[in-house]
Automatic annotation (TrEMBL):
This is YCII-related domain-containing protein. Pfam families: YCII. It comes from Thermomonas carbonis. Gene3D superfamilies: Dimeric alpha+beta barrel (3.30.70.1060). Keywords: Signal. Residues 51-127 form the YCII-related domain. Residues 1-18 form the signal peptide. SUPFAM superfamilies: Dimeric alpha+beta barrel. It comes from the Bacteria. Belongs to the YciI family.
Amino acid sequence: MRLLLPFALSLCTGTAVAADPAIPAAAPTFDAALAQRTGADERGMRRYVLVILKTGPTRMPDGEARNAMFAGHMANIGRLAKEGKLALAGPFVQDPAGWRGLFVLAVGDIGEAKALVATDPVILHGEMIAEYHPWYGSAATMLIPEWSERLVPPAQPAP
């Protein structure tokens, strides 16, 4: 957490923050190629659609079909991330109001977001429903998928 907080602060403020207060922070350096790759505007921001996944009207019973549905959900998440359409996804730990997870989709309008979310098995089966909100956030959010891949160790063979 000690290393992530300065990084998060630098993303929010647009200034460099040293991980160790004894080390002076370097001045931020504009990277035009990175700005273009992430879709950044002149403020280093971009448009997204925040999707809140909530409990839907039809709970799939436990068993193979439910397991397959969630495997398809995870595969869909991976596909959207590889296509550059999904910047961030994850479940809520607990929410009594039925909030299950969220997507931050790298699209500019709700219509495109709805078309992408409609491909997800949890939506198709009614396990979850989606709520859509336009969001304007740091273009650096687009870097999360490539950094996330570096944090997951390779699968270990079964003993």
